[in-house]
Each structure stands twice: as structure tokens, then as C-alpha cells.
Amino acid sequence: MSMVELARVIPDQPGRPEWGEVARPMRDLTRAIALDHGAWTPERSAQITSFFDAQASSWRDRDAPERHEALLDALARGGAFPSGWCVEVGSGTGNATADLQRAFRDVVSLDLSAQMLRLATLKGRQIQSDASALPLRTGSAAVVALINMFLFPAEVSRVLADDGVLLWVSTNGDQTPIYLPPAEVVSALPGTWEGITSEAGWGTWVTARRIGR
Ligand SMILES: C[S@@+](CC[C@H](N)C(=O)[O-])C[C@H]1O[C@@H](n2cnc3c(N)ncnc32)[C@H](O)[C@@H]1O
User: Fold this and answer.
1) Of 72, 70, 76, 82, which Cα lies nearest the Cα of 143?
2) Quick check: CB of 92 below 6 Å from ligand 1?
3) Mutate to test the pocket of ligand 1, among 63, 112, 134 (most ligand atoms within 8 A of CB)
4) CA 63 to ligand 1: nearest atom
5) Residues 6+ apart with CB under 8 A from 134
6) What are phi and psi for residue 211, nearest 5 degrees?
7) What pLDDT, on a 0 to 100 scale, did the predictor assign at position 20?
8) DSSP per-residue string spanning 16-41
9) Which of 75, 199, 210, 213 is paired with 15 by a 20 to 30 Å CA distance?
10) What is the pLDDT of residue 122?
11) Each residue of 73-127: pLDDT tens digit?
């Protein structure tokens, strides 16, 4: 694993939400899933589905201009993206979908929660599915975008084309409940990958490209 750390160009902003210890169980789960596929059990899936179904009606209210800065910076400075499908996994109510649609011609948004998809601002292409078993052909995605979303390393690696890119964004940086440090994101992927990372506004991002199986 190698990582290029770019200097920040979008300054930090005041007002970043601080979740503190309340977010610890979600952060622990994020790390557990990244390290061990077995951590995602049917019981856990049901629990997370009902948690996010319950959050869906207020999820759009969380949107703020600062929550877009890390994604926009990653798209601008995270290296070249091949043409082809961008799969937004864990899209929620689509707070980031328009940004992805501006960057990529073909975007499909996937989420476990039917309520999140139902209340999405943009009714682009949607799939209701579990990211632990993506309903996508091996090697079929140019970009997998995970924005405040769990990393299922084997599935991300499987569906990405050889030159495909994982785009990971934590909109509140290390205060994001579903968070992993960029180096852990890249090292969790099977095979050998190289990353580019930076901070922007409230957030952190990393792009990862495969350099060996
Ligand atoms: C923290 S929210 C982020 C939503 C959106 N990306 C954003 O930043 O506003 C995480 C989303 O991932 C979805 N999610 C959680 N586990 C999932 C899984 N195993 N498969 C697909 N979606 C999942 C949730 O339903 C929720 O919509």
C-alpha cells in the first residue's frame, strides 16, 4: 500500500458537527466490517436497515454546503477516473448524488434502506440492495463512491474494473460516525492499492487504485 498525501487547499471551517463518544459504536462497526466480512450478520443488517429507515425523513436536513467540499476536492484532485459506471453505494437520500452526476455520465445509487431511496431528492437510477453482496457484475464499475458509508473490501474490489477507482469520503473527517482513517481504507482492500488523500473543509477523502492482485 502506498499513499500520496496532498496538502489541504480548502480551509477548515467552523461548525463541524462533533459526535464524540455517541458515534463510537458506529465507528467500531465500520472498522469491524472492513476487517472481517463476518461482522456483517443478518441480524446486523436488519438492525442497520431499521436504523437508517428511521433516519430517512430527516436525512436531507443534514445537508450543508460544507458536506460537499471533501467530495468536490476528491473529484478535482483525486487523480484520473476512468469512463464507465459510477456506483454510489450507501447513497441515502442522495445528498451527494448530484455532485457525482456532474462528474460522471452514468451514476447508479444503491442503498439498503427503502425509505432513504424513497425520499431521495434525485430519482436517478436506484437499486435497493445490501453492499455486502453487490448485485453487480465482477469488474463492471469504473468508480465505487462510498460517502459516509461502510467499506466491504472484497465486494468493492470484486466489482471495480482493473483500472477502477474507490472514492471514499468522510464528510465530517474523523468526526464522521461511519469513519476509517484513509490508510486503513486502502490497506483493507485485497491486493495492492495506491491511495491519494487529503482533507477539505470539514472532511477527509481518499481515492484508491489497484496496482496489483
Ligand atoms: C451515514 S448514511 C450516508 C448517506 C449518504 N451517503 C450521505 O452522505 O448523506 C449511510 C447510508 O448507507 C446505507 N447503508 C448502510 N449499510 C448498508 C449496506 N450494507 N448496503 C447498502 N447501504 C447501506 C444506509 O441505509 C444509509 O443510507
Assistant:
1) 82
2) yes
3) 112
4) 9
5) 87, 89, 110, 152, 155, 158, 159
6) -120, -5
7) 85
8) ----GGGGHHHHHHHHHHHH-GGGS-
9) 75
10) 79
11) 999 999 999 999 999 999 999 999 999 999 999 999 999 999 999 999 877 999 9
pLDDT tens for each residue of 161-180: 999 999 999 999 999 999 99
**Sole residue written with cell 464528510:** 171
- Return the C-alpha cell found at 204: 477527509
Q: Residues 20-65: pLDDT tens digits?
A: 888 999 999 999 999 999 999 999 999 999 999 999 999 999 999 9
DSSP letters of 89-138? ES-TT-TTHHHHHHH-SEEEEEES-HHHHHT-SS--EEEE--GGG-SS-T
CA 26 to centroid of ligand 1, rounded, Å: 12
What residue type is assigned to position 120 of the chain? A
Rounded to a whole number, what is the distance in angstroms from the first to the last CA of the chain? 12
